[in-house]
Write a structure and sequence with these properties.
The chain is of the alpha+beta class and 319 residues long. The protein folds into two domains: 137 residues, Nuclear Transport Factor 2, Chain: A (Roll), CATH 3.10.450; 135 residues, L,D-transpeptidase catalytic domain-like (Beta Barrel), CATH 2.40.440. The protein has eight helices and 14 strands. The chain is globular. The N terminus is likely disordered.
Amino acid sequence: MKKILLFAIIISNVMIADLVDVYRSKGLDAVKAQLEKELTKKDYWQQYLEDKKVDYGYYESKKFLILAQKGAKELSLFKIDKSDYDLVLKDNVIFGEKEGDKQLEGDLKTPEGVYDLTKKLTKLDQFYGPLALVTSYPNTFDKTLNKKGHGIWIHGMPFDKNREGYTKGCIALDNPRLKELDKNIEYNKSILLISNDNFKKASKDEISIILSSIFKWREAWKNSDIDEYLKFYSKSFKRYDGMTINQFKKYKSTIFSRKEKKKIEFSDINISPYPNSLNKQMFKVEMHEKYKTKYYSFIGKKELFLEIKNNKIKILAEG
């Protein structure tokens, strides 16, 4: 362990010395460019993640993770810290009457994927118990697949105790546990993962590929390198507004041809393994984006739904 620590210190000192030389000869902008180049390297992220657990994803701004597994009929709540997940509660729950991934309004199925909690409802019909947490179904990726339906909640059991063994598509748990869940989370800093069978955990290698690729994608974007930029997109890509990959290529080619100087910054990056019924190695990336050119600026949430194929990311949907 001492040898490893000493080696890390030596490497760190060498890098600092190199950066000092870059600063002396080329200035602060060159140092920034060198540091940003490190962000595009998988090795950097593997080292960064060495002492962190990423089984349920990588999170910079999310504080709570809810994992719902339909096969096991089980819900778990974890509090996310910088290097681990702390189990807060686990309990049995009930899901939709029909098996499989939700596709249509009224199909009585619980969706599979990754969702935000958008608000808390109270003063409901007694059937739903004391409260309900509303999910973001259908999310951007669901909409690109033309999935229908709405009103997927985490709610309680009927006060009159007339409990059934299934829901119309929601997730339901006993009222005391629902109150405990509500007490222990901030819904706007929570993420919900719903899987069909046992949840497939993420690996540090997968998260490293995604993080390094995001910054490579950003560099191609900043440099208006259309060929390199489009390599990150799947042939089946569809944007939040329905734009197909061919339409997207044409649209981006026109914008990139202007060779505008761009400032693009990412922060609060959250990466979730994305359970799905498509047999894809999928992830959802959510982050805060600052984008600025001479004539246009955007500050807000950026979403990417992607898969890993042959150790490379392919973006399936963007919002």
